[in-house]
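Propose amino acids for all 235 sites.
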């Protein structure tokens, strides 16, 4: 089975070398569970895409009068990404927004966005970040509430919640089709000569699933185990 190459191992190891003190806090709490937005009507999307002006697009979106319903998007833990398929008002805006919910001691696996730069801001909690720069240097740092950071288009990065509280963040993109390339999954697929390896790793590692992957994720497992022990969590 695939093992992390040196850059990915360095990303994981950097957290251990630069970890800040972990506050003691309650166990996992629930993320928002409002009704999820539904997929947009394809005819509506087509009409918006064909509309030649902003005024015409706005007229289509407010066809029911002065209602702003089609200009409001509700983020939930099951629909954390606002894109044109769920939020037609974003047609021709060249932007995208995601809201992320990371439970205690969980890691969003290394990934990149091939078609957009990302600006991530922590809304609540504390979030450790690592990104692999163009010179193969690993840069790692911690964001506190209301602090933000930039991930350049195409560069690998990941986030880790090292605390005993859930973290919420918002991530904006300068494209409404930023894409997402999962670093480990992509390498597994290439090395195996097909797409079968792309499902080998989850997007999120947590105390609940780490036992299935610890042999293949190096220092990520040690960081999750240490945090889970500190927070009184188990898989």
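Proposal:
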């Amino acid at each position: 089975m695939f093992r992390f190459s040196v850059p990915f191992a360095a990303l994981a190891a950097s957290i251990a070398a630069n970890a800040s003190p972990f506050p003691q806090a309650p166990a996992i709490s629930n993320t928002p569970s409002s009704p999820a937005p539904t997929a947009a009507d394809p005819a509506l999307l087509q009409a918006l895409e064909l509309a030649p002006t902003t005024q015409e697009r706005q007229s289509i979106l407010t066809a029911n009068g002065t209602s702003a319903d089609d200009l409001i998007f509700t983020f939930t833990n099951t629909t954390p990404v606002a894109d044109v398929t769920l939020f037609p008002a974003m047609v021709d805006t060249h932007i995208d927004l995601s809201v992320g919910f990371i439970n205690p001691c969980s890691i969003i696996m290394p990934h990149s966005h091939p078609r957009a730069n990302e600006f991530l801001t922590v809304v609540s909690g504390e979030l450790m970040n690592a990104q692999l720069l163009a010179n193969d240097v690993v840069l790692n740092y911690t964001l506190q509430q209301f602090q933000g950071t930039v991930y350049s288009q195409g560069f690998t990065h990941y986030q880790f919640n090292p605390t005993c509280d859930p973290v919420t963040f918002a991530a904006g993109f300068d494209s409404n089709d930023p894409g997402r390339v999962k670093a480990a999954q992509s390498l597994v697929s290439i090395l195996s000569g097909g797409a079968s390896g792309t499902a080998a790793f989850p997007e999120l590692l947590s105390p609940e699933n780490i036992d299935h992957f610890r042999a293949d994720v190096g220092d990520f497992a040690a960081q999750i185990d240490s945090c889970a022990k500190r927070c009184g969590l188990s898989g």
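The radius of gyration is 20 Å. Residues 1-33 have pLDDT under 50 and may be disordered.
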